[in-house]
Amino acid sequence: MDIGFIGLGEMGAAMVANMLKSGHQVRVWNRSPERAQPLADAGARIVATPAEAFAGDAVFSMLADDAALREVVTATLLEHAPRGLIHVNMATISVALAEELATAHASRGVHYVAAPVLGRPDVAAAGKLTIVAGGPAEAIDQVQPIFDVIGQKTWRIGSLPQQANVMKLAANFMIGAAVETLGEAGALVTGHGLAMQDFLDIITSGLFTGPVYSGYGKMIAEQRYEPALFKARLGLKDLRLALAAADAVTTPLPIASVVRDSLLEAVAHGDGEKDFAVLGQVAARRAGR
After folding, report:
1. In the annotation, is 153 catalytic?
2. Where is the 3-hydroxyisobutyrate dehydrogenase-like NAD-binding domain (predicted)?
Protein backbone atom coordinates (compact mmCIF):
# COMPACT_ATOMS: atom_id res chain seq x y z
CA MET A 1 0.00 0.00 0.00
CA ASP A 2 0.94 3.65 -0.51
CA ILE A 3 0.92 5.04 3.03
CA GLY A 4 1.42 8.49 4.51
CA PHE A 5 2.52 8.74 8.14
CA ILE A 6 2.48 11.86 10.31
CA GLY A 7 4.23 11.93 13.69
CA LEU A 8 7.48 10.07 14.27
CA GLY A 9 7.83 9.82 18.02
CA GLU A 10 9.02 6.52 19.42
CA MET A 11 5.68 4.85 18.76
CA GLY A 12 5.19 6.24 15.27
CA ALA A 13 8.75 5.48 14.19
CA ALA A 14 8.42 1.87 15.34
CA MET A 15 5.18 1.46 13.39
CA VAL A 16 6.69 2.90 10.21
CA ALA A 17 9.73 0.64 10.53
CA ASN A 18 7.46 -2.41 10.54
CA MET A 19 5.45 -1.11 7.59
CA LEU A 20 8.66 -0.70 5.60
CA LYS A 21 9.85 -4.19 6.53
CA SER A 22 6.59 -5.56 5.12
CA GLY A 23 7.18 -3.88 1.77
CA HIS A 24 4.77 -0.94 1.99
CA GLN A 25 5.64 2.44 0.50
CA VAL A 26 5.61 5.05 3.25
CA ARG A 27 5.85 8.84 3.00
CA VAL A 28 6.73 10.36 6.38
CA TRP A 29 6.42 13.82 7.90
CA ASN A 30 7.48 15.04 11.30
CA ARG A 31 7.74 18.51 12.82
CA SER A 32 11.37 17.68 13.72
CA PRO A 33 12.70 16.44 10.35
CA GLU A 34 15.82 14.85 11.82
CA ARG A 35 13.69 12.12 13.41
CA ALA A 36 12.72 10.96 9.93
CA GLN A 37 16.25 10.29 8.67
CA PRO A 38 16.69 6.77 10.13
CA LEU A 39 13.42 5.78 8.47
CA ALA A 40 14.54 7.31 5.19
CA ASP A 41 17.65 5.14 5.42
CA ALA A 42 15.28 2.16 5.74
CA GLY A 43 13.32 3.15 2.61
CA ALA A 44 10.77 5.77 3.67
CA ARG A 45 10.36 8.96 1.66
CA ILE A 46 10.53 12.16 3.68
CA VAL A 47 8.04 14.83 2.59
CA ALA A 48 8.22 18.52 3.39
CA THR A 49 4.61 19.13 4.41
CA PRO A 50 1.75 17.22 6.06
CA ALA A 51 -0.28 17.74 2.87
CA GLU A 52 2.19 15.57 0.95
CA ALA A 53 1.67 12.79 3.48
CA PHE A 54 -2.11 13.24 3.36
CA ALA A 55 -2.51 11.24 0.15
CA GLY A 56 -2.16 7.75 -1.27
CA ASP A 57 -4.24 4.80 -0.09
CA ALA A 58 -4.29 5.88 3.55
CA VAL A 59 -2.60 8.24 5.97
CA PHE A 60 -1.77 7.36 9.57
CA SER A 61 -1.17 9.91 12.30
CA MET A 62 0.45 9.44 15.71
CA LEU A 63 0.74 12.86 17.32
CA ALA A 64 1.19 13.62 21.01
CA ASP A 65 -2.08 15.30 21.95
CA ASP A 66 -5.17 17.22 20.86
CA ALA A 67 -3.24 20.44 20.27
CA ALA A 68 -0.70 18.79 17.98
CA LEU A 69 -3.42 17.03 15.99
CA ARG A 70 -5.43 20.24 15.59
CA GLU A 71 -2.33 22.07 14.41
CA VAL A 72 -1.55 19.51 11.72
CA VAL A 73 -4.92 18.17 10.58
CA THR A 74 -6.57 21.50 9.85
CA ALA A 75 -9.68 22.17 7.79
CA THR A 76 -7.43 23.40 4.98
CA LEU A 77 -5.58 20.11 4.91
CA LEU A 78 -8.83 18.16 4.76
CA GLU A 79 -10.15 20.36 1.97
CA HIS A 80 -7.21 19.38 -0.23
CA ALA A 81 -7.21 15.69 0.69
CA PRO A 82 -8.32 13.27 -2.05
CA ARG A 83 -11.93 12.17 -1.62
CA GLY A 84 -12.10 8.59 -0.42
CA LEU A 85 -8.76 8.81 1.41
CA ILE A 86 -8.65 6.96 4.74
CA HIS A 87 -7.19 8.80 7.72
CA VAL A 88 -6.27 6.50 10.61
CA ASN A 89 -5.54 8.37 13.81
CA MET A 90 -3.68 6.13 16.25
CA ALA A 91 -3.06 8.71 18.96
CA THR A 92 -4.79 8.96 22.32
CA ILE A 93 -7.00 12.05 22.04
CA SER A 94 -10.11 13.43 23.69
CA VAL A 95 -13.49 11.96 22.92
CA ALA A 96 -14.74 15.44 22.01
CA LEU A 97 -12.02 15.95 19.41
CA ALA A 98 -12.61 12.47 17.99
CA GLU A 99 -16.27 13.34 17.43
CA GLU A 100 -15.29 16.66 15.85
CA LEU A 101 -12.78 15.02 13.52
CA ALA A 102 -15.24 12.33 12.43
CA THR A 103 -17.74 15.01 11.40
CA ALA A 104 -15.13 17.17 9.67
CA HIS A 105 -13.73 14.27 7.68
CA ALA A 106 -17.17 13.04 6.61
CA SER A 107 -18.13 16.50 5.35
CA ARG A 108 -15.11 16.44 3.02
CA GLY A 109 -15.46 12.86 1.79
CA VAL A 110 -12.51 11.54 3.80
CA HIS A 111 -12.91 8.36 5.86
CA TYR A 112 -11.88 8.71 9.50
CA VAL A 113 -10.82 5.73 11.59
CA ALA A 114 -9.79 6.02 15.23
CA ALA A 115 -7.32 3.27 16.09
CA PRO A 116 -5.55 4.01 19.39
CA VAL A 117 -3.13 1.36 20.54
CA LEU A 118 -2.24 -0.42 23.76
CA GLY A 119 1.47 -1.02 24.20
CA ARG A 120 4.71 0.84 24.75
CA PRO A 121 7.52 1.48 22.22
CA ASP A 122 9.14 -1.92 22.77
CA VAL A 123 5.81 -3.59 22.00
CA ALA A 124 5.39 -1.39 18.91
CA ALA A 125 8.86 -2.34 17.69
CA ALA A 126 7.93 -6.02 18.00
CA GLY A 127 4.73 -5.49 16.00
CA LYS A 128 2.65 -6.70 18.96
CA LEU A 129 0.40 -3.71 19.65
CA THR A 130 -3.25 -4.17 20.57
CA ILE A 131 -5.32 -1.97 18.26
CA VAL A 132 -8.77 -0.66 19.15
CA ALA A 133 -10.48 0.47 15.95
CA GLY A 134 -13.64 2.47 15.43
CA GLY A 135 -15.01 3.81 12.16
CA PRO A 136 -16.55 2.71 8.85
CA ALA A 137 -16.17 -1.06 8.48
CA GLU A 138 -15.14 -0.82 4.83
CA ALA A 139 -12.38 1.67 5.69
CA ILE A 140 -11.06 -0.57 8.47
CA ASP A 141 -11.14 -3.53 6.07
CA GLN A 142 -8.86 -1.63 3.68
CA VAL A 143 -6.26 -0.79 6.32
CA GLN A 144 -6.45 -4.12 8.15
CA PRO A 145 -3.31 -5.40 6.34
CA ILE A 146 -1.41 -2.52 7.94
CA PHE A 147 -2.92 -3.26 11.34
CA ASP A 148 -1.78 -6.87 10.93
CA VAL A 149 1.79 -5.67 10.41
CA ILE A 150 1.97 -3.39 13.46
CA GLY A 151 -0.31 -5.23 15.88
CA GLN A 152 -1.04 -8.64 17.29
CA LYS A 153 -4.81 -8.13 17.38
CA THR A 154 -7.35 -5.59 16.18
CA TRP A 155 -10.51 -5.10 18.23
CA ARG A 156 -13.29 -3.55 16.15
CA ILE A 157 -15.51 -1.45 18.39
CA GLY A 158 -18.08 -0.18 15.89
CA SER A 159 -18.79 2.55 13.37
CA LEU A 160 -18.30 5.54 15.72
CA PRO A 161 -14.60 6.46 15.87
CA GLN A 162 -14.89 8.19 19.26
CA GLN A 163 -15.90 4.94 20.94
CA ALA A 164 -12.42 3.56 20.28
CA ASN A 165 -11.01 6.54 22.13
CA VAL A 166 -13.32 5.89 25.08
CA MET A 167 -11.99 2.33 25.27
CA LYS A 168 -8.37 3.53 25.16
CA LEU A 169 -8.92 6.16 27.85
CA ALA A 170 -10.65 3.65 30.10
CA ALA A 171 -7.72 1.26 29.66
CA ASN A 172 -5.14 3.96 30.41
CA PHE A 173 -7.11 4.96 33.50
CA MET A 174 -6.87 1.36 34.72
CA ILE A 175 -3.14 1.24 34.01
CA GLY A 176 -2.71 4.45 35.98
CA ALA A 177 -4.72 3.04 38.88
CA ALA A 178 -2.57 -0.11 38.89
CA VAL A 179 0.69 1.86 38.92
CA GLU A 180 -0.64 4.13 41.68
CA THR A 181 -1.49 1.14 43.89
CA LEU A 182 1.89 -0.46 43.17
CA GLY A 183 3.61 2.71 44.31
CA GLU A 184 1.51 3.04 47.45
CA ALA A 185 1.85 -0.65 48.36
CA GLY A 186 5.60 -0.39 47.79
CA ALA A 187 5.81 2.56 50.17
CA LEU A 188 3.88 0.52 52.75
CA VAL A 189 6.08 -2.58 52.66
CA THR A 190 9.39 -0.71 52.50
CA GLY A 191 8.27 1.40 55.45
CA HIS A 192 8.21 -1.84 57.45
CA GLY A 193 11.67 -2.84 56.30
CA LEU A 194 10.54 -5.25 53.60
CA ALA A 195 11.89 -5.40 50.05
CA MET A 196 9.65 -4.18 47.26
CA GLN A 197 11.03 -6.93 44.98
CA ASP A 198 9.98 -9.64 47.44
CA PHE A 199 6.49 -8.14 47.57
CA LEU A 200 6.39 -7.98 43.79
CA ASP A 201 7.44 -11.63 43.44
CA ILE A 202 4.57 -12.66 45.70
CA ILE A 203 1.77 -10.66 44.08
CA THR A 204 2.77 -11.40 40.47
CA SER A 205 3.00 -15.14 41.08
CA GLY A 206 -0.77 -15.51 41.11
CA LEU A 207 -2.89 -12.62 42.34
CA PHE A 208 -1.78 -9.89 39.93
CA THR A 209 -0.21 -11.47 36.86
CA GLY A 210 0.35 -9.56 33.65
CA PRO A 211 2.68 -6.97 32.12
CA VAL A 212 1.35 -3.93 33.98
CA TYR A 213 2.07 -5.27 37.47
CA SER A 214 5.28 -7.09 36.56
CA GLY A 215 6.68 -4.37 34.28
CA TYR A 216 5.84 -1.24 36.23
CA GLY A 217 6.36 -3.04 39.53
CA LYS A 218 9.91 -3.96 38.55
CA MET A 219 10.68 -0.38 37.61
CA ILE A 220 9.36 0.84 40.97
CA ALA A 221 11.29 -1.84 42.86
CA GLU A 222 14.50 -0.79 41.08
CA GLN A 223 13.64 2.94 41.30
CA ARG A 224 14.33 3.01 37.57
CA TYR A 225 12.33 5.81 35.99
CA GLU A 226 14.59 6.69 33.07
CA PRO A 227 14.70 6.29 30.17
CA ALA A 228 10.92 6.66 30.01
CA LEU A 229 8.92 4.20 27.95
CA PHE A 230 5.77 6.21 28.66
CA LYS A 231 6.29 9.66 30.14
CA ALA A 232 4.47 10.82 33.25
CA ARG A 233 3.33 14.03 31.54
CA LEU A 234 1.61 11.97 28.85
CA GLY A 235 -0.02 9.84 31.53
CA LEU A 236 -1.29 13.05 33.13
CA LYS A 237 -2.73 14.10 29.78
CA ASP A 238 -4.55 10.78 29.43
CA LEU A 239 -6.00 10.88 32.95
CA ARG A 240 -7.30 14.37 32.29
CA LEU A 241 -8.91 13.13 29.07
CA ALA A 242 -10.48 10.18 30.90
CA LEU A 243 -11.96 12.53 33.50
CA ALA A 244 -13.30 14.80 30.75
CA ALA A 245 -14.92 11.82 29.03
CA ALA A 246 -16.46 10.77 32.34
CA ASP A 247 -17.73 14.27 33.02
CA ALA A 248 -19.45 14.29 29.62
CA VAL A 249 -21.66 11.37 30.70
CA THR A 250 -21.94 12.33 34.40
CA THR A 251 -19.80 9.43 35.58
CA PRO A 252 -17.73 9.88 38.75
CA LEU A 253 -14.19 8.48 38.56
CA PRO A 254 -12.81 9.16 42.05
CA ILE A 255 -9.77 6.90 41.60
CA ALA A 256 -8.90 8.65 38.34
CA SER A 257 -8.87 11.93 40.24
CA VAL A 258 -6.36 10.49 42.72
CA VAL A 259 -4.08 9.25 39.95
CA ARG A 260 -4.37 12.57 38.12
CA ASP A 261 -3.29 14.43 41.25
CA SER A 262 -0.35 12.07 41.81
CA LEU A 263 0.84 12.60 38.24
CA LEU A 264 0.36 16.34 38.64
CA GLU A 265 2.57 16.15 41.75
CA ALA A 266 5.22 14.29 39.75
CA VAL A 267 5.19 16.95 37.05
CA ALA A 268 5.30 19.73 39.68
CA HIS A 269 8.48 18.15 41.07
CA GLY A 270 10.10 18.17 37.64
CA ASP A 271 9.51 14.50 36.89
CA GLY A 272 7.20 14.83 33.90
CA GLU A 273 9.77 13.38 31.50
CA LYS A 274 10.31 10.32 33.69
CA ASP A 275 8.39 7.09 33.20
CA PHE A 276 4.81 6.60 34.40
CA ALA A 277 6.34 4.34 37.07
CA VAL A 278 7.57 7.49 38.83
CA LEU A 279 4.29 7.26 40.74
CA GLY A 280 6.32 4.95 42.97
CA GLN A 281 8.62 7.87 43.77
CA VAL A 282 5.61 10.09 44.49
CA ALA A 283 4.27 7.55 46.99
CA ALA A 284 7.68 7.21 48.67
CA ARG A 285 8.08 10.99 48.91
CA ARG A 286 4.68 11.34 50.54
CA ALA A 287 5.82 8.77 53.11
CA GLY A 288 8.90 10.83 53.87
CA ARG A 289 11.31 8.52 52.04
Report:
1. no
2. 164-277
